[in-house]
Amino acid sequence: MAVLASGLVLSCSDDWDAHYDGVPRPTRTLWQEITARPELSDFAKLLKGYGYDKFLDSGQRYTVWAPSGSIDTTLVTGEDMTPDEVMEQVVKNHIARGVIAASSVVNDTIKVLNGKPMPFVSEGGVPHFNGSPAKSFNIECSNGDLHILDCQAVYNNNVWSYLRQDADFSNITDYLYSFNKLEFVPELSTPGGVVNGEQVYTDSVFVLTNELWGQIGYLNDEQQDYTMLVPVNDCWDRLVDKFKGFYHYSEDEEPELADKYACRSILDALVFETRSQSSTSDYWESTSGKLFYRPQDAGGLFEGTEAIGCSNGQILKAADVNLSPYQVLNSDIVVEAENIGEYLLTANYYDENKDRPVFVAAANTGVSSSYYMKFTSTNMLRGATVTYAIPNVLSCAYDIGIVFVPMNLTRNGWSSSIDTKKGRVDVELNDKYTKEKLEVEGIEIPGDKVDTIWVARGHQFAYCDYFPNRASMEDAKISLKIVSTPKRSESDYTRDLYIDCILLKPSIDGDLSDEE
Fold first, then answer.
1. Which InterPro entries match (predicted)?
2. Is-contact 155 310, C-beta < 8 A?
3. Which residue ranges form the domains of the chain, and what is each CATH number?
4. Strand pairing partners for 203?
5. Cα 112-144-221 angle, rounded to 5 deg
6. Core-most of 33, 68, 197, 446, by most CB within 10 Å?
7. 248 vs 44: CA distance, rounded Å
8. Are 439 and 428 in contact (CB under 8 A)?
9. Using CA atoms, how far apart are residues 120 and 95, in angstroms rounded to an integer?
10. Strands 226-231 and 313-318: what pairing?
């Protein structure tokens, strides 16, 4: 049974009042009861040092599981916390809002003040709080219940903090934690006046952030339920080496780029929101949108892993991971023809529409993004010519295609009043890294449907040109030139170009294209 803080305050109020109908109420507060017991002196000092004596001496109701004896701060590790924050976590780990009674059959999960779910269960007739036995319990106070533990309760690591607990995870953890950053939060800080025109603070508050959390999941969020596949060091290194093959940059680029993007790509296959997985689907979807078929089955992504429970999910410890780069790096590169301001490098055409793309409002036409581009030839002797930048190719094989649109596809769909014509193009793929050109001449375009014409199958790029944050496509090293080549005498052909997009489909594991 999940016990939530707000529910405890409401559900326990009537029972608490009824319990004392006609019976003298306890006069000691929780704080007074704790300080009256010598075996709780260390815990009492900790409570007072962090201001919790005021809460436990107030009229607000709490339940405290007070550890007897000394406090072991090493039980709270794995997070970038100051010593003060560690001590405060010890306090919050032993207090919950509301009144929670113990019994010989108790079987609850309690959410304590730090948000951790803590099992409160009976073992052999003795209540245990996250594994720590209670030697005295149900000590009634005027503002709650006190249970005294034999020893300090274990701190439940969340997925993020547990990564630091296992030396086998040090390689992936070093990478993840390298993005940690402490950010100053002025609205939570205490202003102390203005010096030389600038606000100064007497108490500055900093919050730990990590840019990866917004991409793969907030692994430190106690409200979430994650399943994270975590490779041990040798396995992580093997995966990085495997993925680096697809990030083979030229010698002119920083050598760290291959490691940077290889590591980041692997993460796309490792984190899953457990609650969002459909019970009726054969696929699990990672937080990065990658799909994996029956990962728990033999041969699946999770095969052979060891499950480790955390306060916000589980870690699956993996000595080996059955992961092909194709399962992550299978995204198509799509250059929409209408995005001429971004991708069009050079061109020769008559700009009759002032570079306005054709919008197709009709549904189910096969045109991607509902736009295509018409490039009109400049005269009767020369067809239209365009050259597009092809960004972010990896050092792997691609099927390269161009999606052409027929002349009679208008805003409102197919027009019977417009005659269609065939097309013919020459295509030139330029690679500035290798200085090589792939030339394909006389490609026929039927012109009667939205059609993908495959220029090359399994074309291998020797170098990676993956720069997702590039400011301009002018420096893209891969480009595709398309030239309309029909002769003037070929009246059943158009010298104009009707292009929806350029498409590159990775064929990492062979030919992945299903089009004919």
1. FAS1_dom_sf, FAS1_domain
2. no
3. 2-149 (2.30.180.10), 160-319 (2.30.180), 333-506 (2.60.120.260)
4. 190
5. 10
6. 33
7. 59
8. yes
9. 12
10. parallel
Integer CA distances (angstroms), 146 to 11, 153, 337, in order: 18, 15, 70
Cα 66 to Cα 45: distance, rounded to the nearest angstrom: 12
Compute CA distances 487 → 424, 484, 494, whole Å. 10, 9, 9
Contacts with 194 (C-beta within 8 Å, 6 or more apart), sequence order: 200
Phi first, then psi, for residue 97 (nearest 5°) are -75, 150
Q: How far apart are CA 466 and CA 389, in angstroms?
A: 13
DSSP code, position 400: E
CB 486 within 8 A of CB 315: no
DSSP E strands, 150-303: 180-184, 190-195, 198-203, 206-210, 226-231, 271-273, 283-285, 291-293
- CB contact at 8 A, 487 and 438: no
Furthest-apart CA atoms within the chain: distance in Å: 109
The 3-class secondary structure across 453-514, one letter per residue, is: EEEEEEEECCCCCCCCCCCCHHHCCEEEEEEECCCCCCCCECCCEEEEEEEEEECCCCCCCC
Of the candidates 325, 340, 417, the residue with the CA atom closest to the CA atom of residue 371 = 340
Burial class (CB in 10 A: 0-12, 13-18, 19+), 108: middle
Q: Which residues contact 342 (CB under 8 A, 6 or more apart)?
A: 473
Q: Where are the alpha helices (DSSP H) in 360-411?
A: none
Hey, what are 129's tokens? 């709080």
Name the strand (E) or helix (H) holding 214.
helix 213-216
Amino acid at 386: V
Please give the span between the terminal C-alpha atoms of the chain, in angstroms, as a whole number: 56
The residue type of 379 is: N
DSSP notation for 8-57? HHHHHHHHHHHHTTTSPPP-S-HHHHHHT-GGGHHHHHHHHHTTHHHHHT
pLDDT tens, position by position, for the chain (516 residues)? Answer: 233 332 333 334 445 454 545 567 899 999 999 999 999 999 999 999 999 999 999 999 999 999 999 988 776 765 556 777 788 889 999 999 999 999 888 899 999 999 899 999 999 999 999 999 999 999 999 999 999 999 999 888 899 999 988 999 999 999 999 999 888 777 777 787 778 778 777 677 777 889 999 999 999 999 999 999 999 999 999 999 999 999 999 999 998 999 999 999 999 999 999 999 988 899 999 999 999 999 999 999 999 999 999 999 999 999 999 999 999 998 999 999 999 999 999 999 887 767 789 999 999 999 999 999 999 998 877 899 999 999 999 999 999 999 999 999 988 988 888 889 999 999 999 999 999 999 999 999 999 999 999 999 999 999 999 999 998 999 999 999 999 999 989 999 999 999 999 999 998 654 433 444
